[in-house]
Every structure is written in C-alpha cells, then in structure tokens.
Amino acid sequence: MLKILTLLLVLVLLGATGSRRAHAQVQPAPLSIGQTFPLASAVLGETRRINVYVPPGYADSTAGRLPVLYMPDGGLAEDFLHVAGLVQVLVGNGTMRPFILVGIENTQRRRDLTGPTTSPEDRKIAPRVGGSAAFRTFIRTELMPAIRQRYRTSAETAIVGESLAGLFVVETLVLEPALFDTYLAFDPSVWWNQGALVGQVDKVLRTYAGPAKTLYVASSRDNEKIPESRRLAAALQGAPRRRITWYYQPMPDETHATIYHPAALGAFRTVFKPQPARAGR
Questions:
Q1: What is the CATH number of domain 32-271?
Q2: Structure confidence at residue 241 (pLDDT)
Q3: What are the residue ranges spanned by the domains of the chain?
Q4: Predicted confidence band at 213 (pLDDT cuts at 50, 70, 90)?
C-alpha cells in the first residue's frame, strides 16, 4: 500500500512539473494590427510617431492602389485603435471602400490643431497654441510624401477628426481645400477664436469653384449647446450642394465624450460607400 501511495505521489509531482514547464514554454507574443514608424520633421522640429493600418487584401496584390485616410489624434492611446477597427469591420462587411489609415500621434495637441486666436481665454488652454499652419505644412510636405513612398496609394485622400482635430479639419477645408478630397469633422471646436471660422465656412460653401469635395459634420448634444456650433449647422443646412457635397448629422444621443466612434461609423458608411458594380453590356 505504501508503495502505491508513493508511486501516485511521484506521478502527481511529475505532472505538476510538466505542466509548469509547458506553461513556461508558451510565452505571449506581441499582437500586431498595423505598422508604426518615426518621422523626423524639419517643419515641426521634432520626430513624430506615425501609425498605419492597411486593410486585408492589400498585401495580396502588388498592383492595387488604395486611398488614404489621415487622422490627427492617431496615437495608440488616442483614437487609432478604434478607428482602425471600424475600417477593418466595414471593409470586411462590404459597407466601406478599402482605405489605408494613417494616424498621427500627438506631441502638443493644442498647439498643432488650433489656428491663430485673438481670444485671451483660448490662449489659456495650453502654453502654445495656434500652430495649425505648421502642422498642415508637415502633413503636406513631409507626411504625405513619406506615405506615398512607403505604400501603394491612389490620389484620393481624406481626413477625420473630433473636437480640436475636427476644428483642424474644418479649418483645412477653408484655408487649403486642395489638400484632401473628403473632410470628416465630429463635434468640431468651432468656438475657437470666437467662432471666426464659421463665417469662412459659410463663404466657402457658397463660392467654392474648384474640384469636387465632400464635408461631413456630426454634432453631439453637448456641441449643439454651443452658439458657434449652431451657426455652423445653419450654414451647412442653408448652403447649396454644388462643388462641395455636405452632410450634417445631429446625434442627440451622444455626448462630446462618446460621439467619435458612432459618428465615424455613420460617416464612413455614407461617404466611403462602395460604388455599385456596373452591369455588363
């Protein structure tokens, strides 16, 4: 009997040792959803982290070229992961055309995403503000060429942003509409500089005569309490759809903190909807 108990004890100990060894051998591996690289910027005088998601199928072809969706607030601890997830799901279920997503990680967000202001209150939000022109130059002269060099891109470009990034999106449409084809702004902070940008948006919507553009604005119940946001909504709803096709989506069930993901879902399905295939002749 003692021999049997001893044998059982040995087997149990051997089993436990083997289990520990097996557990020690199975180490967790990094989970990759995209690519990342540093980009030294002479314009900004610093190195910026760029995060990129390419949809499935991109690597399977050596000829196909894809449009590019740029996003400020594009760090891993910012909005890159959930927007990349949306692109993956919507491309996968056929409700969005494939895009390369390029996220720009922040260093000084309030510096880069705001334009000049005459408001003393605006200047209190950060030690440095009003750097949007330099940030736009960085995108145009350094980031876009780097993306074209590294990836197979088409000529089509878009930009998406929320809050101050939404302000940057709207400002870019006003000041440099040629930079992107599609502009997506969720709860844009158009209160900046006492709402001066709103009047410029109204003028651009009525007088723009260049290549066709698309503007999509979504607004939460928080943003619609702001007078400048209501003025922007009125400017959009009263503008003709000529060279700029615009969309305005009120989202009263969302707050400023929750709007990005559901607004992006609706926007991507609306403005990046796949074109129906032509019937053969």
A1: 3.40.50.1820
A2: 86
A3: 32-271
A4: very high
